[in-house]
Each structure stands twice: as structure tokens, then as C-alpha cells.
Amino acid sequence: xxxxxxxxxxxxxxxxxxxxxxxxxxxxxxxxxxxxxxxxxxxxxxxxxxxxxxxxxxxxxxxxxxxxxxxxxxxxxxxxxxxxxxxxxxxxxxxxxxxxxxxxxxxxxxxxxxxxxxxxxxxxxxxxxxxxxxxxxxxxxxxxxxxxxxxxxxxxxxxxxxxxxxxxxxxxxxxxxxxxxxxxxxxxxxxxxxxxxxxxxxxxxxxxxxxxxxxxxxxxxxxxxxxxxxxxxxxxx
Length: 237
Prior knowledge:
Blueprint: E1 4-14, E2 17-26, E3 34-40, E4 48-53, E5 65-69, E6 73-77, E7 83-85, E8 87-88, E9 91-92, E10 99-102, E11 108-111, E12 117-120, E13 128-130, E14 141-143, E15 147-151, E16 157-163, E17 166-173, E18 187-190, E19 195-198, E20 211-216, E21 222-227, E22 232-236
Antiparallel strand pairs: 1-2, 2-3, 3-4, 5-6, 6-7, 8-9, 10-11, 11-12, 13-20, 14-15, 15-16, 16-17, 18-19, 20-21, 21-22
């Protein structure tokens, strides 16, 4: 793969289109690896975007491996005795994990012995929202190059970027819920339930036909990514 490499643990794909979950390495990681979900499409291996990743402050080496255990849950371990564990609301998630699944929507799900969901990447976004994914009130999208997005108390979706050590709001939107022209990835606040809902089409299909996401870029702009088997499309939201 040109410019990036990956040790794949789980995958969901249809021809050249798919989601891959595993250890991901590129120039950004300085020859190290992150646990990540990568969306690939557009007819080639170079067209890809990371839609979820582990903490970028903990870069693992090439010999890292994932470990499922009854006391530590899901952890990564490498030769340097570094280790990384899943987080839930900024706390380590040390629970007994029976298995891991990657869904057709790109959601990584950890489940227990009774099949109960213990953790899922859709509830712990980094800088990207996939179709059908919710951003809960009080949670943020964070780009590691100094920008973040979240919800104001009035339900507006706002994007911030840090410049000269201060946070500046420069993008804010509140879609008209009565509009008949809503399409694609448009998000609005559900004030009753306290999360962002997707207003575009998010019906699950039996075969993976496209991947669509909204990603907070390093310049603080929200971009819409759409991958199909033969093409890709990137537009500003």
C-alpha cells in the first residue's frame, strides 16, 4: 500500500471498497502503529481515510499484538513493554471481553460472554462520524493537529481551531429540520435525547456499496468523504 501499511485483524469489504481494523502505520505515526479503522475505496489502495484510531500519544511498534483477557479486556502490547487499553469516557476499560466484531457500517464492537456490548467505536469518535453514527452531548470531535468540534448548549454544531494558544469558533450551523432538500451527511442536535442525529440516508444495505463520512480536518474544516468501488469524492460541508 502506497505511503501506508497495515496489519489487518478484521475486515468487511466488497471488491475494492471496505473497512479494515488493525494496526495502522504511516508517516504521521513516525514508523509506529496505531490501532485503527480505515475506510478504503475509490478503486485503489491509496484512497483511504482513518475513521477511528487509538490514542496517538501511545504509538506501538511493528511487533505489537492485541490481547483479549478476562481481567484486562482488550489491550495492545509491544516489545518495548508499552501497552494500550480501550477507554470509555476517559477511563480505562478493564472488563472481560469474549470477542471483537467489525460491522458493515465500520463500527468495532467488543462483546462479553452473554453477547452484551461492552464497548464500540461508534460511541467513542475521534475526528470522524460515519453514516448512522451519533455524537453524544458533551462529546467532541478532536483533530490531533489542534482543532476540535462539539455541541453548544443550544444544539448548534460548532467547530473550533486553536491559534496562538486560544480557541476560536469560526464555523457554526443549525440545519433547518423542515427542509425538503436534506441529503448526504447532515447532522443536527436531537435536543430531547442529547445526541447528534444523521439526517441523510443511512439505510443498511445487504452489500457494502459505498462509504460516507464527515471528518474534522487539521484546519478545522468539516469534510465529507464518499468512497465507492470505482471513485472517491471529497467535499467541504
